[in-house]
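Appendix B, example 12.
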Amino acid sequence: MNGLALARACTAACGKLLLVLLQVVLLSSDNARATVTGDLNSLGYEVQLMHIDHQDSPRARTAAGLNSDLRTSGSSSTSLSLRERYARAAERSRARARSLQLLLAEAQRSRSKYGPQEDETVGAPSSSAGISPVFSQMGEYIMYVTLGTPPRRFTAILDTGSDLVWVQCKPCNDCFPQPDPLFDPSKSASFSKVDCNSSFCHSLLLSTCSDDLCKYSYGYGDGSYTDGSLGLETITLTNARRAKDSFPNFAFGCGTNDGGDFSSSDGLVGLGRGPLSMMTQLAPKLGNKFSYCLVTFEDAVSKTSPLIIGGSQPAELTAAMSYTALIRNKFAPSFYYLQVEDLSIDGRMLNITRAAFDIDRYGSGGTIVDSGTTLYFLTAEAYDPLRATLVPLIQYPLVDASELGFGLCYNLSTVKKPVFPSITIHFTGATLALPQANSFVPVDDLGTTCLVILPTVGFSILGNLLQQNYLFLYDRENSRLGFTPKQCDK
């Protein structure tokens, strides 16, 4: 064989060898990727949550004058100092807690007058009595929801404590200003009206019938409200492969008479436990679970937090999760209640009376996990022994930060690496050991650091500061909440 023929034979053989090696590398890469992430379809549908202080949130854009059709609501969130942001967040948290207490009290009065008493953890009705247990102005996170054919994107408040998904619609008799054009049902090929015999209409305890069409009325704790008609529409979500999937016949509220402060949004997305919530409607197709991972309060001005609807988490995350049962309160059936059994500090159990954490037969007590509240509110029966145990263990100088809305605060201006006692929440079947960053937060640039736990009455609220940099999985199918530490911005 001459030299030229030998070179050609070598070239052909080497090419085939290179192709085989390339295929092996690609196959190995695919297998490795599958081991890390699992089946992409199993990861569900991802939505990015935007804190209301985020630089791109409608409220921030409004304040900066970028949305001329919206009213101005003060300084831009991104121009606020950390101290101002925490002060506003504490004020919103207190207002939301007060609102929820009033709504629960009203539900208790109504049920005791008109309905029988039942065991609070079973036999819960499918929806609240037409009044959504949410303080609309206090919604902390914004998301985008896509409705109609052709699909249109709308800005909505995320709320894990209510059910109805609604946006403002044309023709609107009385609507609040919003960042996006009103939804026009006449321009959507997939819109249809809901008649009065529909199961969706029967899920609304406060509804009326006009021309055989279902009308709804929702009131909120701050006096805000939405009135309109129930409709069926196609909702579009983006899956893990970044492809868009559409789901028809999704029931939503078409608001035509709305008022109040809805955080410069177009409406609201309810992720509660009733039949009209987004999760309940999509569960048969996507799986009855959702999860989110909240970035830190400091990062929330520039980073978003992922919300995963349906699907399942990678095996390495689910294996690391701790689970506690989701229980029900018949007076507030949309909320996600947890059973707290005790608190501990540096491993020492406080032996707080169980009555401080239980739901009583009248619907008072218990603990709600809530994405819309920033702080952790504990009933006085639990807060007082917690504070009494903490204070002697902390040697830093106390400072009064009551003007910011916080209670127990310290001056750390001369302390480089502060160390605080560790606080652990003991749930039924699980414990949540709070990282120091989630329990004692620097609320300004002067060294003021405050405990994120405050006293309240009625019931406790596990707010979002305690949830940051944790993956929270609402496993509705198995009535349990899972959580595990996770860097949420990665």
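Confidence is low (pLDDT under 50) at residues 1-41, 66-75, 113-137. The chain has eight helices and 27 strands.
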